[in-house]
Amino acid sequence: MELEDIYENIEKEDIKDTCEPQTQSRCQDEGKARKQRGSRCLVLITVSLGLICVLLLVFIILQHITITAERDLIKSYKNTVKEFNQTINSLQDNYTDLMTEKHQLQNNFSSLSQKNLELETRVKDLTAEKNQLQSNFNSLSQKKLELETEIRKLSDQGKGRLFMSTEAKSWSDSRQYCRDCGADLVIINTQEKQQLVSSLVKEIVWIGLSDIQQEGYMKWVDNSPLKQGFWEKNEPNDAAGNEDCIELNPAKPVLKNWNDIPCSDKRKCICDN
Ligand SMILES: [Ca+2]
Ligand SMILES: [Ca+2]
User: Fold this and answer.
1) pLDDT 10s digits, 53-82
2) Domain residues for 191?
3) Which of 98, 150, 168, 171 is deepest in the core (most CB within 10 A)?
4) Which ligand is nearest to the CA of 244?
5) Which sequence ranges form a coiled-coil region, renumbered to this chain (predicted)?
Protein backbone atom coordinates (compact mmCIF):
# COMPACT_ATOMS: atom_id res chain seq x y z
CA MET A 1 0.00 0.00 0.00
CA GLU A 2 1.29 3.44 -0.95
CA LEU A 3 1.98 6.17 1.64
CA GLU A 4 -0.39 8.56 -0.13
CA ASP A 5 -3.21 6.01 0.10
CA ILE A 6 -2.53 5.46 3.79
CA TYR A 7 -2.69 9.22 4.47
CA GLU A 8 -5.90 9.46 2.45
CA ASN A 9 -7.53 6.60 4.37
CA ILE A 10 -6.54 8.08 7.70
CA GLU A 11 -7.94 11.43 6.71
CA LYS A 12 -11.14 9.79 5.54
CA GLU A 13 -11.44 7.96 8.85
CA ASP A 14 -10.77 11.19 10.70
CA ILE A 15 -13.42 12.96 8.69
CA LYS A 16 -15.90 10.18 9.22
CA ASP A 17 -15.22 10.16 12.93
CA THR A 18 -15.22 13.94 13.52
CA CYS A 19 -17.83 15.38 11.07
CA GLU A 20 -21.47 15.56 11.64
CA PRO A 21 -23.90 15.24 8.74
CA GLN A 22 -24.86 18.85 8.90
CA THR A 23 -21.37 20.00 8.58
CA GLN A 24 -20.40 17.46 5.91
CA SER A 25 -19.50 20.08 3.34
CA ARG A 26 -17.16 22.00 5.58
CA CYS A 27 -15.44 18.83 6.67
CA GLN A 28 -14.76 17.84 3.09
CA ASP A 29 -12.98 21.15 2.55
CA GLU A 30 -10.82 20.62 5.58
CA GLY A 31 -9.97 17.10 4.33
CA LYS A 32 -8.89 18.45 1.03
CA ALA A 33 -6.66 21.00 2.79
CA ARG A 34 -5.12 18.28 4.94
CA LYS A 35 -4.55 16.18 1.90
CA GLN A 36 -2.73 19.02 0.20
CA ARG A 37 -0.52 19.60 3.26
CA GLY A 38 0.28 15.87 3.41
CA SER A 39 1.26 15.91 -0.24
CA ARG A 40 3.54 18.87 0.37
CA CYS A 41 5.15 17.12 3.34
CA LEU A 42 5.68 14.04 1.24
CA VAL A 43 7.30 16.06 -1.51
CA LEU A 44 9.42 17.86 1.03
CA ILE A 45 10.60 14.59 2.58
CA THR A 46 11.36 13.12 -0.84
CA VAL A 47 13.33 16.17 -1.88
CA SER A 48 15.24 16.10 1.44
CA LEU A 49 16.09 12.44 1.01
CA GLY A 50 17.23 13.16 -2.55
CA LEU A 51 19.42 15.97 -1.37
CA ILE A 52 20.88 13.77 1.33
CA CYS A 53 21.62 11.08 -1.26
CA VAL A 54 23.27 13.62 -3.55
CA LEU A 55 25.35 14.96 -0.65
CA LEU A 56 26.36 11.43 0.32
CA LEU A 57 27.29 10.70 -3.26
CA VAL A 58 29.36 13.90 -3.46
CA PHE A 59 31.00 13.03 -0.14
CA ILE A 60 31.83 9.51 -1.33
CA ILE A 61 33.26 10.87 -4.59
CA LEU A 62 35.37 13.42 -2.71
CA GLN A 63 36.60 10.72 -0.33
CA HIS A 64 37.47 8.51 -3.27
CA ILE A 65 39.40 11.35 -4.94
CA THR A 66 41.19 12.15 -1.69
CA ILE A 67 42.15 8.51 -1.04
CA THR A 68 43.32 8.07 -4.64
CA ALA A 69 45.46 11.20 -4.39
CA GLU A 70 46.94 10.05 -1.09
CA ARG A 71 47.63 6.61 -2.52
CA ASP A 72 49.41 8.16 -5.52
CA LEU A 73 51.33 10.41 -3.17
CA ILE A 74 52.41 7.43 -1.02
CA LYS A 75 53.43 5.55 -4.16
CA SER A 76 55.43 8.58 -5.25
CA TYR A 77 57.05 8.72 -1.81
CA LYS A 78 58.00 5.04 -2.05
CA ASN A 79 59.57 5.58 -5.46
CA THR A 80 61.43 8.59 -4.13
CA VAL A 81 62.72 6.60 -1.14
CA LYS A 82 63.80 3.77 -3.45
CA GLU A 83 65.67 6.18 -5.73
CA PHE A 84 67.19 7.85 -2.68
CA ASN A 85 68.45 4.48 -1.39
CA GLN A 86 69.89 3.65 -4.80
CA THR A 87 71.64 7.02 -4.86
CA ILE A 88 73.07 6.41 -1.38
CA ASN A 89 74.37 2.98 -2.43
CA SER A 90 75.91 4.46 -5.56
CA LEU A 91 77.55 7.23 -3.50
CA GLN A 92 78.90 4.65 -1.05
CA ASP A 93 80.41 2.67 -3.94
CA ASN A 94 81.93 5.86 -5.34
CA TYR A 95 83.30 6.73 -1.91
CA THR A 96 84.93 3.29 -1.60
CA ASP A 97 86.47 3.65 -5.06
CA LEU A 98 87.73 7.13 -4.25
CA MET A 99 89.28 5.95 -0.97
CA THR A 100 91.05 3.13 -2.81
CA GLU A 101 92.31 5.59 -5.40
CA LYS A 102 93.39 7.96 -2.63
CA HIS A 103 95.47 5.23 -0.96
CA GLN A 104 97.01 4.34 -4.29
CA LEU A 105 97.90 7.98 -4.91
CA GLN A 106 99.37 8.27 -1.41
CA ASN A 107 101.56 5.23 -2.10
CA ASN A 108 102.63 6.70 -5.44
CA PHE A 109 103.39 10.01 -3.75
CA SER A 110 105.53 8.28 -1.10
CA SER A 111 107.40 6.36 -3.79
CA LEU A 112 107.99 9.51 -5.83
CA SER A 113 109.15 11.38 -2.73
CA GLN A 114 111.67 8.62 -2.03
CA LYS A 115 112.89 8.75 -5.63
CA ASN A 116 113.10 12.53 -5.40
CA LEU A 117 115.31 12.25 -2.32
CA GLU A 118 117.51 9.69 -4.07
CA LEU A 119 117.79 11.95 -7.12
CA GLU A 120 118.64 14.95 -4.95
CA THR A 121 121.34 12.90 -3.24
CA ARG A 122 122.58 11.75 -6.65
CA VAL A 123 122.62 15.35 -7.90
CA LYS A 124 124.65 16.40 -4.85
CA ASP A 125 127.13 13.56 -5.44
CA LEU A 126 127.41 14.41 -9.13
CA THR A 127 127.85 18.08 -8.33
CA ALA A 128 130.65 17.24 -5.90
CA GLU A 129 132.20 14.92 -8.51
CA LYS A 130 131.89 17.64 -11.14
CA ASN A 131 133.59 20.13 -8.84
CA GLN A 132 136.35 17.61 -8.19
CA LEU A 133 136.77 16.98 -11.93
CA GLN A 134 136.78 20.71 -12.55
CA SER A 135 139.48 21.08 -9.92
CA ASN A 136 141.50 18.26 -11.51
CA PHE A 137 141.01 19.83 -14.93
CA ASN A 138 142.25 23.16 -13.65
CA SER A 139 145.25 21.44 -12.07
CA LEU A 140 146.03 19.56 -15.30
CA SER A 141 145.62 22.74 -17.31
CA GLN A 142 148.09 24.41 -15.01
CA LYS A 143 150.55 21.51 -15.44
CA LYS A 144 150.09 21.65 -19.22
CA LEU A 145 150.93 25.33 -19.18
CA GLU A 146 154.00 24.59 -17.07
CA LEU A 147 155.14 21.85 -19.47
CA GLU A 148 154.59 24.08 -22.47
CA THR A 149 156.63 26.74 -20.72
CA GLU A 150 159.34 24.16 -20.03
CA ILE A 151 159.35 23.04 -23.67
CA ARG A 152 159.74 26.62 -24.80
CA LYS A 153 162.50 27.11 -22.24
CA LEU A 154 164.39 24.02 -23.44
CA SER A 155 163.94 25.07 -27.02
CA ASP A 156 165.12 28.59 -26.24
CA GLN A 157 168.20 27.20 -24.49
CA GLY A 158 169.14 25.36 -27.67
CA LYS A 159 169.55 22.08 -25.84
CA GLY A 160 168.51 20.06 -28.78
CA ARG A 161 165.54 19.00 -30.80
CA LEU A 162 163.67 15.83 -29.98
CA PHE A 163 162.13 13.68 -32.69
CA MET A 164 160.85 10.13 -32.92
CA SER A 165 161.77 7.49 -35.50
CA THR A 166 159.08 6.17 -37.80
CA GLU A 167 160.12 2.49 -37.75
CA ALA A 168 160.60 -0.04 -34.94
CA LYS A 169 164.15 -1.35 -34.83
CA SER A 170 166.60 -2.98 -32.36
CA TRP A 171 168.35 -0.66 -29.88
CA SER A 172 171.58 -0.57 -31.96
CA ASP A 173 169.78 -0.01 -35.28
CA SER A 174 167.70 2.72 -33.66
CA ARG A 175 170.84 4.46 -32.38
CA GLN A 176 172.29 4.24 -35.86
CA TYR A 177 169.09 5.83 -37.23
CA CYS A 178 169.56 8.79 -34.87
CA ARG A 179 173.21 9.14 -35.84
CA ASP A 180 172.28 9.08 -39.52
CA CYS A 181 170.02 12.02 -38.72
CA GLY A 182 172.87 13.93 -37.03
CA ALA A 183 171.65 13.10 -33.51
CA ASP A 184 171.81 10.29 -30.96
CA LEU A 185 169.41 8.44 -28.69
CA VAL A 186 167.96 10.82 -26.10
CA ILE A 187 169.70 11.36 -22.77
CA ILE A 188 167.38 12.00 -19.82
CA ASN A 189 169.25 13.51 -16.89
CA THR A 190 166.59 15.65 -15.23
CA GLN A 191 163.05 15.09 -13.97
CA GLU A 192 161.82 17.87 -16.27
CA LYS A 193 163.23 16.15 -19.35
CA GLN A 194 161.76 12.80 -18.20
CA GLN A 195 158.34 14.51 -18.00
CA LEU A 196 158.89 16.17 -21.37
CA VAL A 197 159.83 12.95 -23.21
CA SER A 198 157.00 11.01 -21.51
CA SER A 199 154.48 13.62 -22.61
CA LEU A 200 155.71 13.61 -26.22
CA VAL A 201 155.47 9.87 -26.96
CA LYS A 202 152.38 7.69 -27.21
CA GLU A 203 154.08 4.28 -27.44
CA ILE A 204 157.07 2.45 -25.92
CA VAL A 205 160.41 3.84 -27.20
CA TRP A 206 164.14 3.27 -26.80
CA ILE A 207 166.17 5.85 -24.87
CA GLY A 208 169.95 6.24 -24.94
CA LEU A 209 170.69 4.16 -21.79
CA SER A 210 172.16 0.63 -21.55
CA ASP A 211 174.51 -1.62 -19.61
CA ILE A 212 175.82 -3.31 -22.74
CA GLN A 213 179.47 -2.61 -21.92
CA GLN A 214 179.30 -3.76 -18.27
CA GLU A 215 176.40 -5.57 -16.70
CA GLY A 216 174.77 -3.52 -13.96
CA TYR A 217 176.59 -0.34 -14.91
CA MET A 218 174.15 1.87 -16.77
CA LYS A 219 175.65 4.46 -19.12
CA TRP A 220 174.23 7.05 -21.49
CA VAL A 221 175.23 7.14 -25.13
CA ASP A 222 177.68 9.96 -24.30
CA ASN A 223 179.34 7.51 -21.84
CA SER A 224 178.13 9.52 -18.81
CA PRO A 225 176.94 7.36 -15.91
CA LEU A 226 173.32 7.22 -14.81
CA LYS A 227 172.67 9.52 -11.85
CA GLN A 228 168.87 9.45 -11.53
CA GLY A 229 166.69 6.63 -12.89
CA PHE A 230 162.91 6.53 -13.39
CA TRP A 231 162.44 2.79 -13.16
CA GLU A 232 159.30 0.73 -13.05
CA LYS A 233 158.82 -1.29 -9.89
CA ASN A 234 161.41 -4.11 -9.54
CA GLU A 235 163.36 -2.85 -12.59
CA PRO A 236 166.00 -3.10 -13.91
CA ASN A 237 166.02 -6.86 -13.32
CA ASP A 238 168.17 -8.14 -16.24
CA ALA A 239 165.70 -10.98 -16.70
CA ALA A 240 167.33 -14.19 -18.01
CA GLY A 241 170.62 -12.25 -17.95
CA ASN A 242 169.72 -10.77 -21.32
CA GLU A 243 168.22 -7.33 -20.68
CA ASP A 244 170.72 -4.55 -21.30
CA CYS A 245 168.79 -1.84 -23.19
CA ILE A 246 166.27 0.56 -21.71
CA GLU A 247 162.80 1.40 -22.93
CA LEU A 248 160.43 4.14 -21.76
CA ASN A 249 156.73 3.24 -21.48
CA PRO A 250 154.46 6.37 -21.45
CA ALA A 251 151.51 4.30 -20.26
CA LYS A 252 153.20 3.86 -16.88
CA PRO A 253 153.52 6.56 -14.18
CA VAL A 254 155.64 9.35 -15.58
CA LEU A 255 158.42 9.04 -12.99
CA LYS A 256 158.37 5.19 -12.98
CA ASN A 257 158.30 4.05 -16.59
CA TRP A 258 161.76 2.64 -17.45
CA ASN A 259 162.52 -1.06 -17.98
CA ASP A 260 165.50 -3.05 -19.22
CA ILE A 261 164.70 -5.50 -22.06
CA PRO A 262 166.69 -7.47 -24.67
CA CYS A 263 168.46 -5.10 -27.05
CA SER A 264 167.27 -7.17 -30.04
CA ASP A 265 163.62 -6.27 -29.36
CA LYS A 266 162.19 -3.79 -31.84
CA ARG A 267 161.00 -0.37 -30.75
CA LYS A 268 160.74 3.08 -32.16
CA CYS A 269 163.14 5.55 -30.53
CA ILE A 270 163.53 9.15 -29.42
CA CYS A 271 166.47 11.02 -30.93
CA ASP A 272 167.98 14.23 -29.59
CA ASN A 273 170.30 16.52 -31.49
CA1 LIG B 1 171.53 -5.85 -18.00
CA1 LIG C 1 163.57 -5.87 -17.21
Assistant:
1) 999 999 999 999 999 999 999 999 899 999
2) 161-272
3) 171
4) 1
5) 74-157
